[in-house]
Amino acid sequence: MGRATWGSPRRCRAIVAFALIASTGVGCSTEAHTDPPDREGLTQRLTDEVGLTPAQARCATSKVYRLVDAAVLRQVAEAGLASVPSAGQRPFIQAMVACTLGAE
Amino acid sequence: MNGPRPNPVPALLVAATLSVIVVRANRQWLQPGGYLVVGAVLTVLILTSGRKISDWVLAVTVTGGLGAALLLPGLTVYAVMAVVAVWMVVRRAPADRRRRPLVPQVLALAGAAAAATVLAATEFVELPVAVITAGVGVALAADLVLVRRAPSRLDRWAAEREQALLDRWAATAHAGTPARAVDVVAPLLATAAAAVVLTLLGRAGAARVVVVVAGLIALACWYAPALRPAIARGAGRFADAVSRVLAPVLLLPVFVLVVVPVALLRRLLRRPGLDLGWRTGSDSYWLRRESDQQEAEPLDTMFADDAAWRRSEPASRPTERPAGAWALRRRSTRPIAVALALALIAGFVATWITRRDPEPVLGSASSPGTMESAAMADSPWRAVAFREIGEATSGIVYTPFVGWSLRDYSSRYVNVRNRVRASYQPQLPAGTDPVDVWFFGGSTMFGYDLQRDEHTIASEVARLAEAAGIPVRVRNYGTAGYVNYQEAALFSLLIGAGERPDVVVFYDGANDTSSALQSRFGDLNNLGEPGDLEARTLREALASAGPLPGLTAGRPSPLVDRPPPGPPTATALADDVVAVYRQGRDQIDSTAARVGVPVVHFWQPTLFTRAEMDPGERSRLDELIPDPDAVAGLRRLEQEVRARLDPDIVDLAAAIDGVDGPVFTDTVHVNETGAAAVARAMWSTLAPVLDARRG
After folding, report:
1. Model confidence pLDDT, tens digit, residues B223-269
2. Is A1 at the interface with chain B, CB within 8 A?
3. Is the pLDDT of residue B299 over 70?
């Protein structure tokens, strides 16, 4: 085999194959490609932003971790609940209601 | 070797474009299964077909990309931000007065430079590619740091789609739903299809590898569902890194809006731009010059022959087209077209098999699953009414002082004119002066989920009045999402316009409570102040509209300073709900008193106040609010609010209690049986008021 040059079948195939395989993999990642944020960060956010007690915030964090995707959790932890559309807020509000009003 | 001068750009551009197409198409149009087939078949095709990459592809892609960069706001932003990012790094200046750290930009730029250096140092790429890589790195830095803070319309659209996927996923896979058979069968089918294609193409070994790997993964996922997210996350991390490079640079619109139309046009004009040849035995895909001694032709004259051929008179053209870069070879397009068609069919079949909940029509239902709820099971017209209500309520228009209102709409079951939903109107003898009754409220008064025009609360009150011999003419001003204060504003506007009812009815509670909850927990509006449920949506729409510089999507400054709220309690929230409600009610009463119109205020029932839920309603509640602690909290809040209502507010908490069977389609909306029950509960209060106003 000679040295691969640009324009040679071997080189072109390698480039296209890598790009396609990688991008195909992206299709797999539409639903789970973000690590969840640190629980403490989210708990602190709920404490600071909403005024929950640390116990209430931990309770709410624990609930939403079971229900909400990591990307949304991360967004809330980093930018606050107001950065999430109303539909995305619903599980957070339900969790906070459960851990505040529901725990009275 | 004096072969054709190598040029890496076309291969990179085509590969990147195809990648973005696959990525975007997978994300938006295909579900798991589809992308496996499409991606695998595309890969196999390109690896085995030996297609020649035409200079036309390069020309169209580059010019199209440049054109799109000028036209698409997102790409333009990327370009501008890339320059800004470089400037920021070079100048070492803070991005703004808040002294945003420069670490991300520096790291991204350094990483890109390092990657470019490494790539350039190896023989893998030439200098232009290294420069492109560095540019991508800078664009990424800008994307990470700046663009995401000011998302373009395209980004916003993508984010909404992503959010919809996330919501759907959270409602299924993350809710602990065990793996279903189709979750495994569909990928296996897709894998089998890919294996068949591979085998047909003479790649039996690759087919075996694909089958074995996919089978192992599928079996592992089947027996250990916990592996599913781990596998997906692992593949996703790798793929996401690639997509972050490719997606911002070349987007699907470049292909769809530029390449495809141009290609179609050229085909229609019989000027195909691709020379698709099977040259697996060749050492190069590039056209060899007829003479190796020939000097490289400058780009501006490269296509002179083709241009001259096009300019020539058709009659004088040679019958055989020149063997140029654009010459089409039909024998090579046929198998590719067949394979792509098969891939698409397989993808859509896989998508159909793996489909989950259907998308709600127009996304306008108050909550998913209304149409399938037990309360609607005996209503054969529900699908039509659901669609019509969706169309009517998705046609809202911004309206000063009330936020939004409905446009005129006409259909079989839902009709709106002058912001009034059609109602049952009793036949009146000629010369009768009816009692004009106006009804205000939110979606529950409108009859949102799901009542037909003639079976809303207003219509049912009209029937009761007819049966009692009281001539009435009703107007249903119920509007989805309205809180009491918006109704007060609408009432005031109507009175200001010279309209005069004989009695006005207000039916509130659910939206007012929801508004307080979202303000307290979700920062929707200022606590203690009237605010509507769509405030955030409207603020964001205004902020992204463009013509009004300086607008932000943030909450406005409070009217008055208030002490920061303590930890949320049911009593504190109930106090807030009632205090805000009282502000609207006072406005209404003042306006009504000024024109001498009696007012009746009702506080609506909800599923939380139902004495005994029907099993269908219980199931629906579990579906909507699976956490029993949250249900307990909301029920407690309801009780606290009702306990604080002023004595002149008629509490209809028990209105539904005597009704057998499922009535609630979610936690607040009722079916037509429920609307009739609410009307009956209202009637004991309304009858004497209406009777006193009859002429």
Report:
1. 665 566 666 666 666 666 665 555 555 455 565 566 666 666 666 66
2. no
3. no
The answer, yes or no, to whether the previous bond of B450 is cis (omega within 30 of 0) is yes
pLDDT tens for each residue of B43-89:
444 444 444 433 334 344 444 443 333 333 333 434 444 454 454 44
Residues β-bridged to residue B211: none
pLDDT at A96 over 90: yes
Residue B303's contacts (CB-CB under 8 Å, 6 or more residues apart) are B55
B9-B14-B15 Cα angle (round to 5): 100
Tokens coding B377: 């099971």
Closest CA to B481 of B388, B589, B394: B394
* Residue spans of beta strands (DSSP E) within B330-395: none
List the one residue out of B684, B661, B663, B682 whose CA is nearest residue B672. Answer: B663
Chain A contact set for B15 (CB, 8 A): 15-16, 18-20
Determine the pLDDT at residue B186.
Answer: 63
Q: Tell if the CB–CB gap between A93 and B518 is shorter than 8 Å.
A: yes
Residues B605, B642: contact at Cβ < 8 Å?
no
**Which two three-digit tokens encode residue B630?**
């949250």
- A-chain residues within 8 Å CB-CB of B160? 85
- Dist CA B684 CA B442 (whole Å): 22
Q: Which residue has the tokens 């109107």?
A: B425
Percent of chain B with pLDDT over 90: 34
B610 or B207, which is more confident?
B610
- Write the residue in A11, A33, A51 that is nearest to B237 by C-beta: A33
Summarised one tens digit per residue, pLDDT across range B570-626 is 999 999 999 999 999 999 999 999 999 999 999 999 999 998 999 999 999 998 898
Which residues of chain A neighbour B20 with C-beta distances below 8 Å? 23
Whether A79 and chain B come into contact, CB under 8 Å, resolves to no
Q: How far apart (Å, rounded) are the C-alpha atoms in residues B246 and B15?
A: 10
Reduce the DSSP state of residue B650 to 3 states and report it.
strand
| Token digits of residue B632 | 């307990």
